[in-house]
Write a structure and sequence with these properties.
homodimer, alpha+beta, five-stranded antiparallel beta sheet, 18 helices
């Protein structure tokens, strides 16, 4: 946990009032700025000390061999790993020749503040150098949502009590030394000196450098320009080298005098374009940024975020901590996805090198649902990226012996990078997760063109995969054997309920979409017998059920397996995967993360209310939440079956995943899906929102401690605003045509003119509160 | 397949009458000599050309890291690989300064012959040098069964038509260059220059060198001495270097004159002993060998083998090819196990570096059954080796979270070296296989002291493992979930029938042995409740059965899985593991090697005759025999259910595995278990021998083409001789007290004085001959 009493709880910002070097790396993740294309970790301006320096460009990666002591057919041989590109954040300060370094001298005050409405990271420090010179340093940093290749910093230094000579060195630094990896496989493989210089130049207050990765062959350009204001004595000089460019500004400041430097930084990269093209691209973006100017960049940023918050804000009265954390999460979800445009949304966004910078099923299952209703264009972009990788996914399916497309379990480019197939290749549900995300987006936006150009093909190619993966058994049931569901403490099981329900939805969705777009379907080679086969498989889908226990086994025979011995498992043995062999985890009833419970959230129609309650209670007892992708789903289903205090606790866990470093790896980047999960826990959990057949259903009900919940949603051209209290819920439209929706089974019509409101019916008795494995209970709010 | 028309079929030898350089490596494996402690591949005396030079000392290995792109708890980090030790075989010949190399000049004749009765490899060649000088070279090589650290060569060179100057260089060569690996994971990882020189010396006709491995820290000594006879002009000199020692003999031979050199080579190694100790050990053995002399070494060897063949020979009339191959196999099984003493019997014996020189379950399941009845002391030694590794096996069990001992899937020292757990760690059946081998040995020998000192503890520690691996389900059935059975095209399945039956036997055997030896049981901490728990688990063991099909699924739900699409699988796609992902192999009904069928062989009492017939036919259709550990078992069960021609064909496949290079990897060493399987196919198959409760049961029945089968067996102090024709079987004792045995349900008593004979009852109609996957039918005899 981040021991960080200095994080203040404020509605619209994350404020750190004291610098704690022990949690520097975690704070760098939390304070990271990104627009989905370019990401800067929250490193100190002066570069050091740092936890983990990090500047990322979405898609820029290096290849590394994937070693196998025993090789096997179809194992990917080459992995991809995100690399730390040229660092444009560095502004070093010398005070009378002493470097400003918070580890030396006296730091009399230090405050950092991530402003969620302005979209900037502010810093203010007062420091007395070892020689006794006092300065006030302040900086404001932004990564522009509006100009996606641009970041900028306003840096000010002021002399306090006596005149000081100051030197500012504003730099571009490539191939920074990185800390050695800690052996945790979730951490990125460190690649030393991944970039080779191709060109560099400097002049005026401007410098530029172009590098290329050695194996992946990507060309990366970075450039900077500056505006400086200070006393007339001020002088400046510029140098450039292979891996370093530096603009140096010197002056002497009298007490109260300020040296102000605005640094504009731009990036560009390409796998295809020539050196001159990449060079010109970053220089052109730089010219544009300088012309825009600092004040206008700040203004654009605020306007972009004002629009976002109007469409997306969640208000939650009664729990200021969660109010704060949910907004923090939404901000980072936006940062991860806003401008990814043609690239993946990685599990850590662009906040750190964790998981090698790969994207997983998290994106489609947890991140895109939030963006679907708050920033739908980002969802279209993310799915267009998946669509652009179809050739690789088709090739992978063919290599594995299947039809259609098999999307990778983890990737940067679309090629499979998972080297452990039981929890990689075998987790075929990712294909249905992608199809589901496409259906959700299409239902929420009615974007016909997207469906024709992108959605249909995603649905069809994944449906083809499923048809080749399953088969009819002799009882006429359609089985999908030997696959891995979401729960990573099980693998290679038959008829995983989540997978089978998702595949069923995928097959039906593909058939429906093909019927809606016969011309495009024809172009994809679909004939009526193929549609019939999809339907027939979907109708006959085997969903195992344990009649004796009255619960659904997560997969066939699951409920016959041995119970995990929780009594013999000590607190220090979590996460279990670091202390027990997969062999034993897979064969016993212990669940890392919601699997059957996620199936109940996404396909509630397949379960009766009684089954939901029994299933939820059953899986609560054996779910240890060693994954960050669980609490939010447990919150949703706890709310649905009526355990509202428990839902509240799980919402808190999802929301505080990184602010409290619950998984002990926030240093490597944020858990974007868990942060998205906080929104899901609120909207699908507390407000009970489901979308079915293009209509919205709500069953809002607040835990005792929360007094009011309000949020906005984009849905089919409307902007819906929902407000919930213990007594009633009101549904109004901020824009758009009247919308029919469902509230606790009652049909209401929301219009722009008038909110539709209805009382919250009394809650039925949910029965006793389910228990969790000893020591794994969520912290009650 | 070895395209080797030059292998002659002779009852007692393997003769090659022509040298085919294309199959040199395969021939080196086939002509390998070994005594289980020391092994020399059948490389040409002059060292080159070679397929793969190989000199091995059982247990001498180097460590190598096992890499994982994604690590996991309990994955072994260090592997072991057999190394090529100092080559003492090399005798180079120069003829008028031209090296004798079969690739140059004219090889007018070349014959090699492995003499199975003499236990020597003979070679005769006539060669005309590029300059036109003719010589006759003959050599006889042996690795002594009697003096386990000794090998020797008699080498003769004779001038043919004109006088020739000859130079012989007899060498010890360390760190030979090996061919680069071919990427097949079954081949040993090549380790370059594994040995570092510690000492060397030479003088007279003698030389010695000591080396040490770098990571495993093993000290390896080799020494040679010579006796030379030739014309008076003969001169000799000796040199020694770090990695080379050389005795050079020069003379001029008149036509008809012979230079004869006898080379004695000894080896020794130790992980513990000092340099002087190892040096003295090899020199002492050398002195002993020289004192014994060549003729006596040859004589001892013959006597050792005469005794073996008297106890072990199999006569098979009607199929000379199989007669030949079965003896060839028996000879190599003896070579693999005879003097392993305190070390494992590797899958390839000491004939090549395949599978890194590791021992697997093959040893206990296929090799030890043969040795149990033909060379039982070797079985006691092999099981004492397993017993000596109990501390490592206990540590492994504890690491995995289980009780008792978990023996490694593959190893040289006893430490787990398997890096792919679904087909390694999860294949827990190896523990029951070891227990079963111990029970079989004890039943066949009545060796009480072994049972007390070794067998009991092996049974008890494996029974403890099983008890911690399984559990009672809510129906009161005892389940073993998530394990891998013998068939490597399935993995991580519930209630594998083979595993559960073997575990049941293991649990019962441990309880019985503990009751027989209460004092030793007490020392092992066994209290009555533990015995009761073993019994209870054994009684309640779940054996799945598919009522609808009337067959046993190999593991639960197996018969519900999709059928493999054999029609769409081309001949070039075998072995399937090189062309399809494990993911798909595991989830479909396709069997690499006998699994349920092996269960029917080893635990026939658990199946009715009708079930055996149906099961056999069912699994025949889906078994592809991509493993060499299958044909023999299919032969056994084909014979039992009455398909005698099929049994004959499978017997042939097992027996010709290496002579015809059926798996295309004989170059890396022989398939010792398959060669053992040929004996099993004859004795357990054609003669239908089973041992139950310390009694022997026979159900002999010959295929049409075989007219007579006779073999000897050692059993409880007797030497039994069985002779079978189509009409009757006769059971005689060569030595020992009368023995009661069972013939087709009839009880007979064999005595030394009189053979008991009984007619073969008419065969019941076995129904239609089962079919195999297209293209995977065994070649009919």
């Amino acid at each position: 946990m981040i021991e960080h009493p200095a994080f203040d709880v404020e509605p619209w910002c994350l404020r750190e009032t004291q610098l704690n070097l022990d949690v520097l790396a975690q704070a760098e993740s939390v304070f990271a700025l990104s627009n989905g294309h370019l990401g800067w970790r929250g490193n100190l301006d002066e570069g050091e000390p740092h936890g983990l320096p990090g500047s990322y460009l979405n898609g820029v990666h290096e290849l590394r061999p994937l070693p196998y002591a025993e090789a096997g057919y179809g194992y990917p041989e080459s992995g991809q790993t995100v690399i730390n590109v040229t660092n444009g954040k560095v502004i070093r300060l010398l005070v009378d020749d002493e470097p400003f370094d918070v580890r030396y001298g006296e730091l009399t005050s230090h405050e950092r503040m991530l402003d969620l409405r302005a979209g900037v990271l502010r810093r203010r420090a007062e420091w007395i150098s070892p020689a006794g010179c006092g300065v006030r340093v302040s900086s404001t940093r932004l990564v522009s949502f509006v100009q996606r290749s641009v970041a900028a910093i306003e840096y000010r230094v002021e002399a306090l009590d006596s005149p000081v000579r100051v030197v500012l060195q504003s730099e571009l630094v490539t191939n920074e030394q990185l800390p050695a990896p800690n052996g945790d496989p979730r951490v990125s493989a460190v690649l030393e000196e991944p970039l080779r210089s191709e060109d560099h130049a400097g002049g005026g207050l401007r410098a530029m450098m172009v590098h290329r990765t050695q194996r992946s062959g990507l060309r990366v350009g970075a450039a900077m320009d500056h505006v400086i204001e200070g006393p007339p004595s001020m002088q400046a000089a510029t140098e450039s080298f292979a891996d370093l460019a530096r603009v140096t500004v010197t002056t002497t400041l009298e007490p109260g005098q300020v040296l102000r430097l605005v640094k504009f930084v731009t990036y560009g990269w390409s796998a295809e374009r020539s050196l001159p093209a990449v060079r010109d691209q970053v220089v052109a973006a730089l010219t544009g940024a300088v012309k825009t100017g600092w004040e206008e960049l700040v203004h654009e940023q605020r306007a972009y975020l004002d629009d976002f918050w109007e469409r997306a804000d969640v208000e939650l009265d009664g729990d200021p901590g969660i109010q704060h954390a949910v907004r923090f999460g939404l901000f980072h979800v936006l940062q991860a996805g806003a401008r990814a445009e043609g690239r993946a949304i990685p599990a850590k966004g662009l906040t750190g090198p964790g998981y090698d910078g790969h994207a997983f099923w998290d994106t489609e299952t947890f991140v895109l649902p939030v963006l679907t209703y708050t920033a739908p264009q980002a969802v279209a972009d993310a799915l267009r990226w998946r669509h652009s990788t179809l050739p690789l996914a088709r090739e992978r399916a063919s290599q594995l012996g299947f039809k259609g497309a098999a999307f990778p379990w983890r990737t940067i480019t679309g090629a499979e990078c998972s080297s452990y197939w039981p929890a990689g290749t075998a987790a075929f549900h990712i294909n249905a997760d992608i199809a589901h995300a496409a259906s959700r987006y299409m239902n929420a936006t009615g974007n016909e063109r997207f469906e024709r150009d992108v959605g249909l093909e995603l649905l069809v190619e994944t449906a083809r995969l499923w048809l080749s993966l399953g088969h009819f058994d002799s009882h006429g049931r359609w089985r999908i054997d030997g696959v891995t569901g979401p729960d990573e403490y099980s693998a290679i099981a038959d008829n995983n309920v989540y997978t089978n329900l998702m595949a069923q939805h995928n097959l039906r969705g593909a058939a429906d979409a093909a019927r809606r777009h016969p011309q495009q379907a024809g172009q994809l080679g679909i004939e009526p017998p193929e549609l019939d086969a999809w339907q027939a498989a979907a109708e006959a889908m085997l969903i195992p059920y344990d009649e004796r226990l009255g619960v659904h086994p997560q997969a066939e025979a699951f409920t016959e397996h041995q119970a995990w011995d929780f009594a013999a498992t000590s607190a220090g043995q979590y996460p279990l995967l670091l202390h027990f062999p997969y062999f034993d985890l897979y064969r016993k009833q212990v669940v890392k993360q919601a699997d059957l419970v996620l199936a109940m959230h996404l396909h509630g129609e397949a379960f009766t209310d009684e089954q939901k309650a029994r299933n939820f209670a059953y899986y609560e007892q054996i779910t240890v939440r060693d994954s960050s992708l669980s609490a939010c789903t447990q919150a949703v289903m706890a709310a649905e079956v009526g355990h509202l205090a428990l839902a509240h606790a799980y919402l808190a866990e999802a929301a505080f995943m990184d602010l409290e470093d619950l998984e002990h790896n926030t240093r490597d980047g944020l858990h974007i899906a868990s942060l998205a999960g906080a929104w899901i826990a609120v909207v699908a959990g507390l407000a009970g929102m489901r979308e079915r057949g293009g209509a919205l259903y709500f069953c809002p009900r607040l835990p005792d401690d929360l007094t009011r919940l309000a949020f906005a949603l984009s849905f089919r051209g409307r902007r819906l605003r929902v407000e919930v209290t213990h007594e009633e819920a009101a549904y109004g439209l901020l824009a758009g045509d009247p919308l029919e929706l469902h509230h606790h089974g009652q049909t209401l019509t929301a219009t722009a003119a008038r909110r539709a409101s209805a009382p919250i019916p009394p809650a039925p008795d949910p029965g006793p509160t389910p228990s969790q494995p000893p020591g794994r209970e969520p912290t009650p709010r």
